[in-house]
Amino acid sequence: MPGREAVAYFGAGPAPLPSPVLQKGAEAFVNFEETGLSLAEISHRSQTANKILADTKTALTSLLQIPDSHDILFMHGGGSGEFSAVVFNMVAVWVEKRRKKAEDELGGDETKIIQRVKSELKHELRLDYLVTGSWSLKASQEAANLLEPLGKGFVNVALDSRESNAGKFGTIPPEDTWSLSSPRSKGGKGSAFVYYCDNETVDGVEFPGLPHCLDQSSQEPDDESLVVADMSSNFLSRRVDVSKYAVIFGGAQKNIGITDVTLVIVRKDVLSCQPPTSFLHAVGVWSPPTIFNWPVISKNNSLYNTMPIFSIWIAGEVMRGLLETHGQKGLAGQEELANQKAKVLYDTLDTYPDVYQVVPHQSVRSRMNICFRIRQGDAAQEKAFLEYAESQLLQGLKGHRSVGGIRASNYNAVPMRNVQKLAAYMADFARKSKPAAGH
């Protein structure tokens, strides 16, 4: 049986974890800090659990320089669960803003306030989605499904990148081609929020940074776009100005830790802008399910129900490891390393263009998920590539089942030596590869 260091794993998630964290975790799983109890056994309301939560929040705040204007939540449900949570919570925020304005203008006439907000809901509610890959597509579809009982047309797909790329994901068109909801200052209705997925694991597409048109610092207060970003697969791989986002969320199982934990960073004024449940129901909107209700989770310090403390501890260990590794550089150091590793792989692929074809356009190539085909998707050659890679202990390289091909996931815990081993294998395979007969 091979040892851990002999295997180079490039799976898209669950992803590799730093070996020191796993070794320490193995001890904590049996006997945490000589307490005689496993971290999987302790009460989630114990002092130990509360300290683990606090320490993990502190580490994350240090890494991302999270301002006091935002809170950190630990939740269940993964990124897919947040597809729903975003809709429930952010629509509630939109309703509350309309309720307050109606209350100011109509006084205390509850019947008129309800009628007005109900009408505005029907005619003016819009949720903007930038669809650049499989996950943002699923998020937009979830939003449409949740709102369908109220009617259709609430979800505005402001960008579907397939439309400019022969029906396939792999590009991000220029911002001036996006059809974001027109702001009120220009006679439009605005939007409750703008959602995008920062990195698409299936299609290998990553935004180079926050789109300029979503930068809140360049907007009038009344036209503020509440930006919601799914950063599940590139979380903690580069610097992020958290102050420019209303919500950032991510599942832990890529760069942060193991499954069971979802991190949500949310602006405190979003948490405080929630209407009474009775008002939501009066205008025909569901209140957020308690387990997905951000204000409830925040008020209970993420302990409304039993959280997986062991998983949160693992995430904290990963974060503290990044702080220790990169010192004062912080995430800038991890960003440099991620870029270097991605460059090694993309340079190798680009050296053999007849053999390897990178799926996304060069301007939006993901640093986390390197997706490519072999000889335009030759099934036999891709099968051979994967089989021989497995024999060399290069594992987890098969593309997502929905698109096929090859995918090398370059998450934080993948060491440079494994990247170099894969690059050497790709070069060797390319030199030996022959076109299929008839090509």
Task: For this entry, give a set of tags.
439 residues; alpha/beta; three-stranded antiparallel sheet; 12 helices; globular
Describe this structure in words.
The chain is an alpha/beta fold and 439 residues long. Helices cover 39% and strands 13% of the residues. It has twelve helices and 14 strands. It has helices at 19-30, 47-64, 78-106, 110-124, 134-147, 268-271, 277-282, 294-299, 309-326, 331-351, 379-391, 416-432, and strands at 8-9, 70-75, 127-131, 155-160, 194-197, 199-200, 205-206, 227-230, 247-251, 262-267, 356-358, 369-374, 394-395, 406-409. A seven-stranded mixed β-sheet has the order 2-10-9-8-5-3-4. The model has no long low-confidence stretch (mean pLDDT 95).
Structural class comes to alpha/beta
Note the overall shape: globular
Output the number of helix runs.
12
Task: Summarize model confidence as the mean pLDDT.
Answer: 95
Strand and helix layout:
Blueprint: E1 8-9, H1 19-30, H2 47-64, E2 70-75, H3 78-106, H4 110-124, E3 127-131, H5 134-147, E4 155-160, E5 194-197, E6 199-200, E7 205-206, E8 227-230, E9 247-251, E10 262-267, H6 268-271, H7 277-282, H8 294-299, H9 309-326, H10 331-351, E11 356-358, E12 369-374, H11 379-391, E13 394-395, E14 406-409, H12 416-432
Parallel strand pairs: 1-13, 3-4, 3-5, 5-8, 8-9
Antiparallel strand pairs: 2-10, 6-7, 9-10, 11-12, 12-14
Helix pairs in contact: 1-9, 2-9, 3-4, 3-5, 9-10, 10-12
